[in-house]
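Q: what sequence does this backbone want?
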C-alpha cells in the first residue's frame, strides 16, 4: 500500500475515480494484445475488470458531498464516442499502457467533467491528463509489439470509489449513459 493513500492516523484513504470502462469485447482485444508482449518477471497485471481510462480522480467524499458530485456529473452530456486504441508503450515510470488516438470528443468530455467537478467545489488530483488504460506495472524493459487498432464504442462513464485495501477493489457508485 502506498503511503500517499494513508491518512494522518494511518487509515487507508479511498479515492473517487470518474472514468471509462471498456466492455468485455474491448477488454478481450486489449488482453490479446497484452498477451503478445514479452514481460519481465517482476511485472504486475491489474485485473481486466478494473481496466479503465481515467477522466478525473478525486479525494473520497462524505455522503453529502458525494451526492453533490453525482448531481454535477448527471449534468454532463455524453455523446456516444468511438475511440480507437492505437498505441501502446511502457512509460519511464515502468507502467505499460494502451492509448487512444487523439479524439476531440474525448478531450471535450474530460473538460466538461473537469468543469462540473470544479463547479461543484471539488479539486482534481490529476495533473497533465494523458488518456490511457494501464495494462501492467513494474514493466521495465517489457517488449511491446505493434498494436492493431482496437475500436471502442463508449456508451457511459462511471463514478467509482477505489478502495486501497487488500485486495484493491472498485465500488461502482453511479453510471452515466450516453444520450
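A:
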Amino acid at each position: 500500500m502506498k503511503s500517499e493513500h494513508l491518512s494522518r492516523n494511518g487509515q487507508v484513504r479511498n479515492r473517487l475515480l470518474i472514468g471509462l470502462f471498456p466492455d468485455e469485447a474491448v477488454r478481450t482485444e486489449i488482453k490479446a494484445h497484452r498477451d503478445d508482449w514479452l514481460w519481465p518477471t517482476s511485472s504486475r497485471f491489474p485485473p481486466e475488470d478494473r481496466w479503465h481510462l481515467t477522466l478525473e480522480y478525486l479525494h473520497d467524499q462524505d455522503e453529502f458531498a458525494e451526492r453533490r458530485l453525482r448531481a454535477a456529473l448527471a449534468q454532463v452530456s455524453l455523446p456516444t464516442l468511438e475511440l480507437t486504441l492505437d498505441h501502446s508503450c511502457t512509460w519511464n515510470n515502468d507502467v505499460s499502457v494502451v492509448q487512444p488516438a487523439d479524439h476531440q470528443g474525448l478531450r471535450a468530455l474530460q473538460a466538461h467533467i473537469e468543469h462540473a467537478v470544479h463547479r461543484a467545489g471539488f479539486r482534481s488530483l490529476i495533473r497533465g491528463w494523458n488518456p490511457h488504460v494501464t495494462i501492467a506495472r513494474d514493466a521495465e524493459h517489457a517488449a511491446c509489439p505493434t498494436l492493431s487498432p482496437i475500436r471502442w464504442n463508449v456508451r457511459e462513464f462511471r463514478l467509482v470509489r477505489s478502495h486501497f485495501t487488500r485486495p484493491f477493489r472498485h465500488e461502482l457508485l453511479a453510471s452515466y449513459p450516453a444520450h
